[in-house]
Every structure is written in C-alpha cells, then in structure tokens.
Records
---
Amino acid sequence: MKRNEEYATDSLHLAGYLKAKKIPLIRIERSGRFGLFFFPKKEADTEATKFISGQALIEPRSFVTAIRELRAAVDRILDKG
C-alpha cells in the first residue's frame, strides 16, 4: 500500500477506536517512545473525523480491548529497540 493511501496516527485512543470499528491495522512503527499506527486511508478518514469531532459511537468493551491489544503491540516493538 502506498503511503498516500494510508492514514497514520500516534494517538493510541484513536487507533483503538479505528481497530474496534474493524478497520484493518496495516502496521505499527516506532516513533520515539510511542507507536505510529497505520490504517487504510479510505476506511479510516470518516471514522477518524467522527472520533475527533466527538460524534463517534463504539461499544466500550471492544474499545478497551483494542487499546490493550495496541498497547501490548507497541510495548513489544519498543522492547525490540
């Protein structure tokens, strides 16, 4: 996938929301002490706008689970150094 077809965010909460909405996570890259999360732009744009504008709706348990999974994935990446 080309970079201009990807939506990137360093927000764990936004990434968790997108993951909970079943938008496929392409990859995670290290960005300092944090992760940079990549999703397909076409699918992520609308949902990211909803999240940022406070209009997002999500089942809380799936949101929390997605954040835990992403945090664990970032920790694994950071541990590899």
---
Amino acid sequence: MPITRGFILQASYRVTPDDRGLRRPVVHLYGRLENGESFLVRDDRQRPHFYLRAADAEKALRLRADTQSPTDRRTFGAEPVVRIDVDVPSDVPPCATACTAPASRHSKLTSASRRVI
C-alpha cells in the first residue's frame, strides 16, 4: 500500500450511537493531502479517559466510572494512579473534578486534541 502524506487542519469529535445503541465518541480529523485533496478520518478506537490517584479510585466507582485499569504511572508526589475510562468526553470534567483531591488536576485538552498530540 503506498504512503499518502498530508496534514491535519482540525480535530473534533462527535458522539454517535454504536451497534448496540450506546453512546460512542468518534474522533474526526480533517486535513489536506499532499496533492491538494481534502480528507476526513473517523476513529472510534479511543475511549475518553483520565488518570486518578489510586487512593481516590473508590470515588470514581460511585460516579459510574466503573472501568478502571492499573498503570505504572505516578503523580509528581510518586503516588500510584489508575486510568479511568468513561463513555463520552463530556463525562471527564465532572467525574475528574468530583474525584480529585485539591492537589490533583485533570487535562483540559479534549480527547480529539489529545489524539493529535
């Protein structure tokens, strides 16, 4: 398969129903190919997520953030963290804010922007 080169002009996402009717975020990457044609890539493989101190993980369970994965990452204070997956990107800020201690912060980037970076 030949390599096609281009660059991304804009990233966004939309929430659409999947085959089972559940809400599923789809990242949209709009861009321009080297030959001048435009393109759109739709990617539904990434789940919205954030990282939380393992000590605060119990709070996330009470907020319907029931998909938690252990990681080898740590806070700046060397505390272990877990990855918290949520259904849609708009669930991240309220869940992260409700779960975090004052010293912790979640990313302000949208999942589409994080995907590009």
---
Amino acid sequence: MPYIVTGLHDGDALAAACSELGLRPPRRAGVRPGSTEAAGWVVRLPGVLRPVVCDLRTGRVEYDRRDNAFGRYRLILLFLCRCAAVQARRRWTHGEAAGHTRRRCVAAG
C-alpha cells in the first residue's frame, strides 16, 4: 500500500484543514485502502476513490494504489499541503515558530 511520509502530527490541524476545505471531520478508524489494513484518522476526499488514513504518531498518510494516478494523487497532495499550512499557522500563532523565516506551501489550484 503506498504512503506518503509527512510532518503531520497535529490532530487539531488535521481537523481544521478538513473544516477549511468543507470536508467531514476526520474519524478514528481502521480501513483497508489496499491489500492491508491501516488504522488512524480517516479522511474522505472528493475525487479520490478510497479514503486516506493519517497516522499522526508516524506522520504516514496511506492511500489506495488506484489513487496513484496523477489527478487523484494531486488531490491528496493538495490536501496535505493545506494540512501543513494549517499546522504551520497554528505554530506561528501560538509562538512556537523558530526563527524569522516563513515558508509557504504553494500548489497550483
């Protein structure tokens, strides 16, 4: 089963990104995105065949291999980009940002 290793470890940021995008809130569950079972926070993205599973302990985001096609994979990456932006914004507003540089996640919409 394919996966993406991310820096996503904040459940509140995951929920906030879902809210900003108008998605249902993530739910904790186990699903079979492919041939094996994955457990974590499940998010259903429009345009993607199967839900993605976010493991906040490891930062792994697992998805079905049929969603590896360019268009559907792009939707997964855009969602993860939004999660990263929300997580960074939460750190910035809570005074946890180190240094004075700002990074921006840019994705063509």
